[in-house]
Structure of Fe2OG dioxygenase domain-containing protein:
Amino acid sequence: MSYAKSTRPTRFLRVCPLRARDEARALAEGAAREAVEVDARDIDAKRAVTFEFARVEDATAALERLRGGRTRASVFGAGVADGETALACGYSARASDSRAPERERTKASRRSSVEGLTLIENFVTVDEERALATLAATSGDETRLARRRVKHFGYAFDYGTRDANLKVVDEIPELAMEVLRRLPRETPGYEGAMRCDQVTVNEYPRGVGLAPHVDTHSAFGDTILSLSLLGGTVMEFRTSGEAHRAIYLPPRSLLVMHGESRYRWQHYIPHRKFDTLEGEAAPTPRDDVRLSYTFRERRSGPCECAFPLQCDSRDGAQSKCSKRKTGKTQAFAELVGESGDSF
Ligand SMILES: O=C(O)CCC(=O)C(=O)O
Ligand SMILES: [Fe+2]
């Protein structure tokens, strides 16, 4: 992501020059407490750093402190030593939208408005949440991805082929199956949920998200469920058209993806530290960690969904997926998300 100077106030501040890398890092750490994201790549490449704030007002307040303060230590209240030189700083905008007005974030709803998507709040109790978190910490083999940790139960998920054919020694914890079985019968996707035989546990540190994707049609069945523990998050849904929805998943809630929400819409979690929720005046900070249990049923025959464009059983997503090994196509980038994250 590159940033350009902006003459109008934005949520982004660019601060430069910073004389040493360490100094930039210390500043970034201080800023991270109130800024939404730090473009860390800039620290290495240009010795300048871009901070993204939740609101334009927050960026303005920080800019005033930056311009008013004589020392760097005063900037974000961070322990930055040796700061006699005034910093060059100002608003910036993502280069691609420096002329366009800043797009308002979609406010996340607490109710689903995607066909086939059901959110059940308080699906597990606080005690069960704690027990499931302990189980995730003490059992299963850990895989470290770029920004999050995962564990697989029942079958391993292969991040290359995006299927799950390898049986693993770690069975799905009985408590996880027990809570899943209490899903109300009338929930769309109930039958598929009862056949789940693969579980992935994801641990997301604050600010870390998940790239847009549709879970592989050929590998998994009609119903995909995600149980949120310890922290809430906004999950967003988009289609290849313009449609875009955001839903807030509180801790202890269960999200059931079935129908269009499972087969046609991509789901993803934006990488950010604050979420914007409907009915909340101020942005909501994410918790330090969110744990999710994703339940899936491995598919045996080909997928027969009504969405051939997204379906690798019909050569829709398959051709894009196989190109992954030879080079990323635009279509594939769209399928898995611009960040190229794994899921
Ligand atoms: O963490 C979540 O809630 C979703 C995970 C997910 O989408 C996946 O594993 O495919
Ligand atoms: Fe997924």
